[in-house]
Amino acid sequence: MLKLPNDGPATGRLLSQVLTGDGPAAIVHAIARAQAPLMQRLAAGRLHGDPTEIVGLNDTGDKQKALDVGAHHHMIAALRDAGVRQVLSEEAEAVIELNPDGAWDVAMDPIDGSGSIGIGAPLGMLFSVLPAAPEGFLRTGESVVAAGYTSFGHSMDFGWSLGDGTHIAGWDAEAGEFRLVRENVTLKPTASTIAYNASNERHWEPGLQRWVADLRAGRDGPRGRDFNMRWLAAAVGELHRILLNGGAFLYPADRRKGYENGRLRLVYECMPIAFLVEQAGGLASDGTQPIRYRKPFALHDMTPLIFGAKDEVETILGYLAGPSKG
């Protein structure tokens, strides 16, 4: 590895020293241990085959790539060994039963941002842990007791929360393990960088179009300051960047067919994000209520999502509520 002039030995406690004990901590640690093979396959690109090969369709007709399905099966094996009762995955229509006597359930998106597989853009995975219950995954985000993500970029980073704040670890290749690099991440209440897909603006409702127009007007408009824009096309990439540097993200509902309820999956994308962001002092909303209060009516329900800096999320909600509050 290239050594920079000020480099020294890797610092930070090993994740095995941080995530100790049984229950959700053990499951989160098992998920963390399963990430290195995914990173290595991503890094190999097309050397051994095409990870972007279309091998199927998921429940809503999205194309499944070879890496999507491979990551799904890899994580299912890891969760079975961890004693998880059942799993809900974006890559399977039905709930997968693993250990009938298990005390915990896991919802996951094995590869988030898979549209960018093979082009070097950020990818990731998301998960949440819930106590085993008869209603399975059809309950509000208030049931989530732990959540986390992996960000695959120029580094591999693992963020998690057990309800005691949000923490981030980085992969130490020499140790073959993650090390804690940021503890109790706290989001700034104001945002200077906003992530959204500008190509969809014309389909948004009027209040949201007013918000983005005022945003773009910068210091010459009613907001009185300039903003930067980012769009990584991967919710995990945006989450990781916002936790590190602040900002806000939105993927709202719009007028297009199939987008009336947003496009992100409630149970295994938005609920984990909401848990992590709120543990860091931010907000996560569907535009009318906190994500944690939404109850899914189907396993793969979609929802609008706005998350990040508290003040900016509240500002967006004000514009959505009507002219008198925008």
From TrEMBL:
Mg(2+) 2 binds at residues 109, 112, 269. Its main location: cytoplasm. Gene3D superfamilies: 3.40.190.80, Fructose-1,6-Bisphosphatase, subunit A, domain 1. Residues 189-318 form the Fructose-1-6-bisphosphatase class 1 C-terminal domain. Signal peptide: none annotated. Keywords: Carbohydrate metabolism, Cytoplasm, Hydrolase, Magnesium, Metal-binding. It catalyses: beta-D-fructose 1,6-bisphosphate + H2O = beta-D-fructose 6-phosphate + phosphate. The keyword Ubl conjugation does not apply. Substrate binds at residue 197. Its cofactor is Mg(2+). Pathway: Carbohydrate biosynthesis; Calvin cycle. Residues 58-183 form the Fructose-1-6-bisphosphatase class I N-terminal domain. Its EC number is 3.1.3.11. Mg(2+) 1 binds at residues 90, 109, 111. It is found in: Cytoplasm. HAMAP family: FBPase_class1 (MF_01855). Homotetramer. This is Fructose-1,6-bisphosphatase class 1. It comes from Paracoccus benzoatiresistens.
